[in-house]
Amino acid sequence: MIHGWATMFSNHSLIGNFEPTSIVMSDYQAVIAAPGFALGLRCNDTEVTAIEFLEARAGLAAATPLAEEAVRQLRCYLQNPGFIFALPLAPAGTPFQRRVWARIAAIPHGETRTYGALAEALNSAPRAVGGACGANPYPLVVPCHRVVASGGGLGGFARQRGGLLLDIKRWLLVHEGIR
Question: Domain range spanning residue 41?
């Protein structure tokens, strides 16, 4: 389980939403090259504020000590899908989103849950759970790729139903030995 995840988001207001984007590299404190994609890292001096999926590109060296540690941990995950993150994450999301993210963070490596199963556990609807997954500012750390559609389908990923982001979801699931 992610260090302090359940309490980290328990009493904070919305800071921002994750949205895949193609912002210039200088907007990131680091970019991590991954197989077929890249990860853009945003952070301040004390907290990671976002991790964003980017099209494949060369890495960008970490600009701060926290970015350096986040890069180390993200690379560890890319080498070992069982790696457990311990990053200071900036509070984000609505109370409902934080509840969904806490449930997602509890999904063990190598397992998935359906949108419907999470919705039932949260007394909500699958589309609402999907919306919260799409708003996750910390993919990989909060493994929203482990949430799939009923009947074995992938569902969406980061508010997308196809293209690069769904390819990334497929890769992450294979990386974790799920599909």
Answer: 5-79
Q: Please report whether residue 87 resides in a domain.
A: no
Separation CA 149–CA 133 (nearest Å) = 12
**Distance between CA atoms of residues 159 and 131, nearest Å:** 7
- Active centre residues (catalytic): 144
* Segments of 13-172 assigned E as strands: 30-34, 37-43, 48-55, 113-114, 147-148
- What is the tens place of the pLDDT at every residue in 108-120? 999 999 999 999 9
E-strand ranges in the chain read 30-34, 37-43, 48-55, 113-114, 147-148
Q: Which own/partner contact pairs does 172-178 have at CB distance under 8 Å and 24+ positions apart?
A: 172/140, 172/143, 172/145, 173/112, 173/145, 173/146, 173/148, 175/78, 175/81, 176/81, 176/109, 176/110, 176/146, 177/81, 177/110, 178/110, 178/111, 178/112, 178/146
Average pLDDT, the chain: 86
170 shares a domain with 102: yes
* Its pTM surpasses 0.85: no
